Amino acid sequence: MKIKIVGTVILVMVVITAGASAFAITTAAPSSQVQNVEVHVMYADLMVYPSLAEITSLSTIVFQGTVEEVLPSYRVAPKDIPNAKTVGYLMTDVIVRVNKVVYGSAEVTNTTITIPHTGGQQGNVKYLLEGSPISEKGKTYLFFVQLDTDNVYRLVGDTQGRFLIQNGKLTPVSDDAENFPAGKILKGMSIANLERDFRRLTNR
């Protein structure tokens, strides 16, 4: 982890997806305040993958999954600077039931896996990663995830590797995600057509 302090802004290099991302986190004052909740907005310089083939090549599994539980948020704080508790940010683990594997080992079908999401809320303090909402309990998504060396499943490219499934069709999870190459390809596609054409779309 690399940390640079510039005034009241901390730039943190941290692996939150299958790739490094740079964050600018405001630490002195909240970005806004809504109903007595301090909202801090984080910005990430994410690597943009040019194709589904590349996202898939980095994925251990691609699957349809339903969020069973959103766990309490926890603080991630740099260890090598003073007063770290005041300059960290929040993460939230999401437990997902694997309904159907589209790519990779089918052994995880009907099991649950935990996927960390950047952002969350503790008390009256909330952290949001711009353009990347936390997956919601009860909703079903298409996930592209990589199992890293710490045995943690991480989203590949954050919102580039996560699509909401509604009425059998894929929807990017945010307006920002619609503008990524993967979002443009998959927006409005039926999950049935994705499964049928997955090999052609990803060269797998």
How many H/I helices?
Answer: 4
**Average pLDDT taken over every residue:** 84
- The CA-CA distance between the termini, in Å, is 33 Å
Note the overall shape.
globular
Strand tally is 15
Point out poorly predicted stretches: 1-15, 24-29
Specify Rg, calculated over alpha carbons: 17 Å
The class by helix and strand makeup works out as mainly beta
> What fraction of the residues are assigned to beta strands by DSSP?
over 45%
- Taken in chain order, the helices and strands follow as EEEEEHEEEEEEEEEEHHH
Helix content: 10-25%
Biggest β-sheet description: 8 strands, antiparallel
Chart the SSEs and their pairings.
Elements: E1 2-6, E2 9-17, E3 19-26, E4 32-34, E5 37-45, H1 52-57, E6 61-70, E7 74-76, E8 89-103, E9 112-118, E10 120-122, E11 125-129, E12 140-147, E13 153-155, E14 162-166, E15 169-172, H2 175-178, H3 181-186, H4 191-202
Parallel strand pairs: 5-11
Antiparallel strand pairs: 1-2, 2-3, 3-5, 4-5, 6-8, 6-12, 7-8, 8-9, 10-11, 12-13, 12-14, 14-15
